[in-house]
Amino acid sequence: MAAQSWEAHWRSLLATQNEAVAREVVKGRAYHRSGRVTDLRVSAGLVAGRVQGRQSTARVVEVTVATLTAREWATVVDLLAGQLRHSARLLAGLQPEGLAEELADLGVDLLPGPDDVTTTCGCGAVRPCAHVAATWEATSEQIADDPFTLLHLRGRGRERLLADLAANRAQQADRAVSVPLTDLPPAGWARNRAPLEDLHLPSGQVPARGGAPRRLLGDPPGWPRGPSADELFGPLVERAARWAAGLDDDERR
Which residue, among 188, 206, 205, 203, has the nearest Cα to 251 in the 3D structure? Predict the structure, then answer.
């Protein structure tokens, strides 16, 4: 069973409360579809927006979301820094598959629960109203379009989180144990250590430009100013891929 998407989880926090709120959710989604949500702003721990309902005056809605603690964010950053597939998906505008579940195993609830969210509306309703539901739906769309939205709600915006990741990776590099080249055993450098029969590229599947992952991950920590790592090594990597594919084609002939 596939894990629930972040925006689906966000929607469920409101839609599953009770029948009265469920009716307001239907109205609120209609408000959102008709473009009545304006000035939507997302910040650490807060969503704010204005909703034009049936009255002449737009209602101000605020949704407060509990942020993660510094210790919890340290766990998030450690996991993201150690799993490049997660940070690469984030930078590509995709939700990192399995991230929330892995963090839950470490004791961090990335996705907010019902007790982590409170709502207020200028209409004075004591329970979530259609204005709140409209704002909620608009927020879910932002989460679907940009997963950094949910991370921002939980306390870290895009720029802050990327800076934390860069600092974490730099610290890991400083702690790495280096081994002098002369201490490495030369045996095996010029010979394959396993059969290479299965290591081939299917003919015709070498991309003309395959540098997207390199550009998404950015330069390594400590990279000097000037040409980026992708600009410097990208052509070499692609030439090597085409050369390797040519070897495979020669072998087939």
Answer: 203
189's tokens: 């450098």
CA distance 51 to 53: 6
Q: How far is CA 210 from CA 85, 221, 246, in A?
A: 16, 22, 17
pLDDT in tens, 104-120: 999 999 999 999 999 99
The pLDDT tens digits for 72-94 are 999 999 999 888 889 888 888 89
Residue given tokens 């408000």 in the structure block:
31
Residue ranges of the alpha helices (H) in the chain?
6-15, 19-33, 70-82, 84-91, 99-105, 130-145, 148-153, 158-175, 212-217, 229-252
Question: Which residues have C-beta within 8 Å of that of residue 111, sequence separation ≥ 6?
Answer: 6, 9, 10, 100, 150
Beta carbons within 8 Å of 200's beta carbon, 6+ residues apart:
248, 251
d(CA 130, CA 211): 46
Phi–psi pair at 200, nearest 5 degrees: -145, 155
Distance CA 233, CA 221 (A): 16
Two structure tokens written together for 218: 């950015």
Which of 140, 156, 150, 80 lies closest to 111, judged by CA?
Answer: 150
